[in-house]
From TrEMBL:
Keyword Transmembrane tagged: no
Function text: Component of the dihydroxyacetone kinase complex, which is responsible for the phosphoenolpyruvate (PEP)-dependent phosphorylation of dihydroxyacetone. DhaM serves as the phosphoryl donor. Is phosphorylated by phosphoenolpyruvate in an EI- and HPr-dependent reaction, and a phosphorelay system on histidine residues finally leads to phosphoryl transfer to DhaL and dihydroxyacetone.
NCBIfam families for this protein: dha_pts
Protein's recorded name: phosphoenolpyruvate--glycerone phosphotransferase
GO MF: phosphoenolpyruvate-glycerone phosphotransferase activity
Gene that produces this protein: dhaM
Length: 125
C-alpha cells in the first residue's frame, strides 16, 4: 500500500535519526527518509541529501518535508525547485511533533491534503 511519505530535514544527523526511530516505532509502514547534516557529517544541511531523501520515498500519494530551522527550509525549497515532482510540500509544523502527527495520519491512509489540513489546524495560530 502506498502512503504519504515523510522527509525529515535537520542540521543534525542525530536529530533526524532519533526522530525517525520514534516514528518507525509508532507507524512502521510509513515511508520515512532523513537528510541530516552536511555531506561531510558537519552541522548544516545538504541540498543533495534532501533530494536523495525525497527521491528515495516519493510516490504519487505525495511527500511532506519537515525541517528544524530556517536555513533547512531554504535548502529544502531549493531542492524542490531543482526537482520536477508533484504532490510534495514543506510542512509548517514542528519537526518532531508535526512529523509524528503526519506519520500517524499517513498510516491511516489519509491523502496529502487531509494531512496538511490537520497540521494547519494543529499548528497555525
Amino acid at each position: 500500500m502506498e502512503l504519504v511519505g515523510i522527509v525529515l530535514v535537520s542540521h543534525s544527523e542525530k536529530v533526524v535519526e532519533g526522530t525517525k526511530d520514534i516514528l518507525k516505532q509508532v507507524v512502521g509502514d510509513v515511508p520515512i527518509a532523513i537528510a541530516g547534516g552536511t555531506d561531510d557529517g558537519s552541522i548544516g544541511t545538504s541540498i543533495d541529501k534532501i533530494q536523495a531523501a525525497i527521491e528515495g520515498i516519493h510516490s504519487e500519494k505525495g511527500t511532506l518535508l519537515f525541517y528544524d530551522i530556517g536555513s533547512a527550509r531554504m535548502n529544502a525549497e531549493m531542492a524542490l525547485e531543482m526537482m520536477d515532482l508533484q504532490s510534495i510540500d514543506i510542512a509548517e509544523a514542528p519537526l518532531v511533533e508535526g512529523a509524528y502527527l503526519a506519520a500517524v495520519e499517513s498510516s491511516m491512509d489519509k491523502p496529502l491534503e487531509a494531512i496538511q489540513e490537520s497540521l494547519y489546524k494543529e499548528y497555525s495560530s
